[in-house]
Amino acid sequence: MRFQSPKPVFSPTFTHFRIGLLALAMTTLAACGGGGKGKDDTAGQASVPVEVATASHQSITANYSGTATLEAVGDAQVVAKTTGIVLQLLVEEGMRVQKGQLLARLDDDATRNKLAQASATLKKAQASYDKADKGFALKITPKADYDSTKYDLEAQRAIVEGAQLDLSYTRIVAPISGVIAKRSIKLGNLVQTNQSLFQIVDLDPLQAVLNVPERDLDTLKAGQQVRMSVDALGSKNFDGTIARIAPVVDAASGTFRVTCEFRDGTQTLKPGMFGRIEVAYDQRHDALVVPRNAIVEEDGENSVYVIEPAPAKPAKDDKDKAADKAKGKSGEAVAAEAAKPALPGFVAKRRVVKIGYAEGDRIEIRDGLADGERVITIGRNAVREGTEVQVLENATKSPDAMAAVGATEKHA
C-alpha cells in the first residue's frame, strides 16, 4: 500500500492573516525606501518661525548688582542706670531728639536725701580739716591727725560726687541725636538698673553692606557712586556712595564686605528696608551689543544663532511636476505654483562668541560677531545648525506669529 502526503488545508481565516502580513510589509518598505531621498532633503519640512535682532555698536555700562538691608549708623539703646519710678515722659516714638535732651524723669526723692546727708557730712569734714590745718601750721596738731582729717575730707567729697551722679541718673537723656524708634516704659513703671527704656536711631546716613565675591575685589573702590532701588517704595531709586571696603576676604564664604552709605534728607528710607544695589564701575561707549536672550549657553560655551541666506533651490523638473499631478493637483495649480515668486529663505548658523559687560536686557559681544549681523532672539531653542527659519519682522505686533514661535519652542 502506498501512502501519499496529506494536502495542506487553508482556512479562510489563515488566508486573511497572510494578506494582512503582506500589506504590512509593503507599507514598511514604502516608508523605508522613500523614493531614495536622503536625510538632507528638507523640501517637505516647514521653516521654523523666529524673531531676530541686529548687532549694533552702543554704549554699555558694567554694573555689579547685589541686595542688602539698610542699617542705621547711629543706633543707641537707652538703659536705666538707677532704680526708680517713672514720674514723667517727655518723648514719644517718631519724635526727633538731640543729644543730651531730656527724655524721662524718675523719682529722685531718695537720691536727693542721700546727697543732702553726704553734703552735710562733707561740711563737717571740711571744718575738721580746716582746724587741723591751722594746728599743723602752728605745730600744735600732730601730722597723723592732720593726715587723717585730710583723707576723711577727700573720701567725703567722693561720696558727695557719687550722690550727685546717682541724682543725675534719675534724668534720662538722649546719648545721640536721632529719632525715637521704640519706647519700652510707661508712666508709673518701676524700672531697674540696666533695663531698656528707649531706642534711638539716626536716619542720616543709613548704610547697607554688600557681600561681594572676591573676583570683584579689584572692580569696586571706595568713593564709587551706587544706586539703590527699594521695593517697598515702588522701586524708587536713591543715590549713594561706597563708604569703605573691608581689607580681607572671608575664607568661609569667599566674599568681602562693601559698605554703602546713603543720605536721604526726606527721611523716606528707613532702617530694615530691603534694597537692590547697583554699582557702575566701568563704561564702554562703542561696544557691539545684542539682546541678552540671544545668548545660548551650551557645554561651557556662549553662542548665538545668526541667520544667513539659504542656498537657492532648483526649479521643479518634469518628473516633479508629474508627481504633483499624480497627487491630484490640476495642471493649472501646478503652473500657478511654479509661477509663484520664491520667498527669501534663511538658515540658522551657530556662532561661538565671547561676551563682555551686561546691562539690563543687553549684553556685549567682544568676539565672534560682526556689526549688522542678525541673531535669533525668540525661537533660538527650536533651531540647530542649518535649520531653515522664517523671520518674523513684526513678531511683537502679531499675536498669531508669536503663538507660532511659542509652539515651536515648546515642542523643540
Q: What does it look like?
A:
The protein has 412 residues and is of the alpha+beta class. It has helices at 12-33, 109-137, 143-169, 318-326, 331-339, 399-410; strands spanning 48-54, 56-79, 84-89, 96-97, 102-106, 171-173, 178-183, 190-191, 196-213, 225-230, 236-245, 255-262, 274-291, 296-298, 301-309, 346-352, 354-359, 362-367, 374-378, 388-391. Strand 14 and strand 15 form a beta hairpin. Helix 2 packs antiparallel against helix 3. The longest helix has 29 residues, at 109-137. The protein is rod-shaped.
Low-confidence stretches: 1-44, 395-410
Q: Distance between the terminal alpha carbons, to the nearest Å?
A: 75 Å
Large-scale geometry: rod-shaped
CATH class of the largest domain: Mainly Beta
CATH architecture of the largest domain: Beta Barrel
Helices and strands, in N-to-C order?
Answer: HEEEEEHHEEEEEEEEEEHHEEEEEH
Question: What oligomeric state best describes the polypeptide chains here?
Answer: single chain
How many helical elements?
6
Radius of gyration from the alpha-carbon trace, in angstroms: 45 Å
Arrangement of strands in the largest sheet: 14-15-16-20-1-19
Tally of strands: 20
For the largest beta-sheet, the strand count, sense and barrel status come to: 6 strands, mixed
Helical fraction: 25-40%
The share of residues in extended strands comes to: 35-45%
- Total discrete domains: 3
CATH topology of the largest domain: conserved putative lor/sdh protein from methanococcus maripaludis s2 fold
- Find the structural class using helix and strand composition: alpha+beta
**If you average the pLDDT, what whole number results?**
82
